[in-house]
Amino acid sequence: MIGLILDSTVRLCDSDREVIAEAFAGRVRTVDLTVTIDDDEFRDSQLDPSELCSRMRGGSTARTSMPAVEDFAAAIRELLDDGADGVIIITLSAEMSGTYKAATAAAAQVAQERGIEADGDAGAEGVRPGEAVGIRVIDSRTASAGSVGIAHWAAAYAQQGVAVCGDAAEKAAAQYSATFFVPETLEYLHRGGRIGGAAALFGRALKIVPVLQVDEGRVEPAARVRTTAKAARRAVDEAVAAVDAMRTLDGAENLRVQATVMHPEATDGEASTLFRAILEAAQAQWDDVDTAVLSTVVTAHVGPGAAGVEVRLVP
């Protein structure tokens, strides 16, 4: 039986955690990123998102940092010592964070210690080393709810070993997931270097509301509209188009659609008008729609008030 390691941006709800833990026989570990608010440092999974949003709105500066290599290495050793005969690691996009590189370095370190194979990328001829027993690192090419969907793909193939499980997770990351979101302001993305100063100024000056997407692991513009209501509708329209495109792929005919609507602070009656508008539009499109609170690491970059929708095809 193999084990699974996730970084802390993959926020699992109770039902997700139960399904994934059962698939991996309880061998699931989480490695935290770090969020620093002004001079106060927090582990991602232990920081209340509402506190982060409140402090950011009050003018505090939020920064994030990837886990140490040793944090991943310790989690890998723990799973192997617990009887796992291989390990899958799923991280947020390598384009967004150095977390993937840290996990890959840790995999190589532990593999050398234990005399097993580690793999982050396919070999020269597409053959992966260590397929019978090994450590495989998956770049999710996304974050938050998108990575949760990829974890479910890994869970569906957990019984079939590192090679098959890893292939399923990588295919899901590359083909079966799409994320669209609407920031309340471009300021936080600008501060974090995700967009340029000119783009942020242009958006403020013309009162443009952008719809952004995670494309090949990067934050890219999907549309620009004039009102928040239009942005909510457009985000879901873009997600519908993404699902339609996924449906054309070989093997996708019998897969079902799951959608998750995300918000940094709450998913109840106190959530933003934007969140509620996206949720209502999503529920009008798909039967299987849930909600999720964003990781504080993701919130530190998209900012308070943002909301989005992630869609995936699942077995």
Automatic annotation (TrEMBL):
Q: Which InterPro entries does the protein's record reference?
A: DegV, DegV_C, DegV_domain_contain
Which keywords accompany this UniProt record? Lipid-binding
Annotated GO molecular function terms are: lipid binding
Q: Is Aminoacyl-tRNA synthetase there in the keyword field? A: no
NCBIfam families this protein is in? DegV
Could you identify this protein by its name?
Fatty acid-binding protein
Organism this protein belongs to: Brevibacterium ravenspurgense
